[in-house]
Amino acid sequence: MRSYLYMTRYVDPCVDPPTTLYLASAEKRGIKYWKAGITSKDDPIRRDSRHYKEVFRNEKVQWRGDAEGIEINVSRTFYWIMFKSRMEGYIINDPPTREGLSCDFPLEVSL
Above pLDDT 90, what percent of the chain? Predict the structure, then answer.
């Protein structure tokens, strides 16, 4: 039995609509936090208007897979910043959601 490796290629131009990668401030249960995420909507606040308050940055990314990779890397970077900050003795509050980023960090760090 032969095994074949199938590879997919990106089609240029991309037939899918661009994905929006964003950084927004949010509030849930009275706790403020940052949210970096992706959406297919033009306005990221429309993704969760109940919790999202203000969008500070949004970028159109043509390939959804690329946007997902960026979102994962932002989350991992914040995880390590929070981990190292706690090791150095800083008190960092956890965001109220698993995918949120701590609001203890200023906007400049989040951007």
Answer: 23
**Three-state SS annotation for 66-104:** HHHHHHHHHHHHHHHHHHHHHHCCCCCCCCCCCCCEECC
Prior bond to 13 cis, omega within 30?
yes
Take residue 29 and report the two structure tokens written for it.
């249960």
Whole-number average pLDDT of the chain: 83
Domain residue spans in the chain?
Answer: 19-110
| Average pLDDT estimate for 53-62 | 90
pLDDT band at residue 87 using 50, 70 and 90 as cut-offs: very high
23-29-32-36 Cα dihedral, nearest 10 degrees: -20
Cα→Cα distances 99→43, 78, 102, Å = 19, 10, 10
Q: What is the pLDDT of residue 108?
A: 79
What's the helix, strand, coil split of the chain in %, to 5? 30, 30, 45
